[in-house]
From TrEMBL:
Protein name: Progestin and adipoQ receptor family member VII, a
Location of the protein in the cell: Membrane
Keywords: Membrane, Metal-binding, Transmembrane, Transmembrane helix, Zinc
Residues bound to Zn(2+): H129, H280, H284
Main location: membrane
UniProt KW Coiled coil keyword: no
Keyword Disulfide bond (UniProt): no
Ranges annotated as spanning the membrane: 77-97, 109-131, 143-164, 176-194, 242-261, 319-340
GO cellular component: plasma membrane
Family statement: Belongs to the ADIPOR family.
Example of a GO MF term: metal ion binding
Topology in membrane: Multi-pass membrane protein
Alphabetical list of Pfam families matching this protein: HlyIII
Organism encoding this protein: Seriola lalandi dorsalis
Amino acid sequence: MATIVMERIGRVFISLQQIRQVPQMLTEAAPSMPGTVRDSEVPSYFRERYVCTGYRPLNQNWRYYLLSLFQRHNETLNIWTHLLAFLVFLVKLRQLSETVDFVNDPHSWPLLILILSSLAYTAFSVAAHLLGGKSELYHYTFFFLDYIGVAQYQYGSAIVHFYYAVDESLHRHVHGLFMPAATVLSCLSCLGCCYGKYCNHSLPTWVRKVCQVVPSAIAYLWDSSPVAMRLFSWSTASEDPAFFYHFGQVAFFLSCAFFFTCPLLERFFPGRCDFVGQSHQVFHIFLACCTLCQIHASHLDYVGRRELYTRLHGSGEVALFAGLYAVTLVVCVLIGALMLRKVKQVLDCKTKSK
């Protein structure tokens, strides 16, 4: 018995040694990879307020930015928080597909749209934070893609809230209006985020925040109104298995909205949150938790409120909502392409003026 125990301890020790050698192996595989630089060595549009070091140099090859996934820089945790969230959502989709018939049950499509949009926004966020540092053009390209993903997630939130969480009284007042309005608000949110990013060249930082936050806040208030009605019904909380998940998603969203708009940690500890502790990293974590609570709540509503939502929504309504999701995606892609064209015009003027 003692021999077996010692052999297992030895294997664990060897495994730990191999794990400790991973950073060295990566360094040897890419010995020419440059280190990080200070904020003064990158253009102003790459700088984050109160983040002084840890920036990756521009105009390196793609291999450098891909391998920077395993390097220590000020975007590392922004990448990994949403990369891990993407994997969690992927596992959740696989688990749900074992009990939910996403192909033959149209009533499950809103839940599927929510999960697919969650995968989209996390994947696009990873791409933006991982690859957006290559050049100014690619910086705008990948972050516009990120905003397209956020708009899709907003629509995904709207459809599950209206389809599964809405009660009869609210449904009577907003039926026929809710999802078209959600489509418009998602597109306006994408436009506001893209325009705010584009304004980096000419307007102060607070203008960018206003352009990004105001349309998104209006969209959130509209999209979450069915959930708010549920949360106001405290008397039915004990009979509603999804109640606390809905409460959790609202609490997490309000928390991540606070950290998105207020770089609180960096402001009080400038230069000490360059790698760990940035408000944007906390925002990523809270947003992922919000989404996970939302998926749990929507699945519970899908199972437990079937009699209600099948009575409220007509047979062809879910197909219309799925079509509006496609419309939202197309319009947001066009918005991103239009704003990218404007960015290219600015870059061309800057190049000619040199």
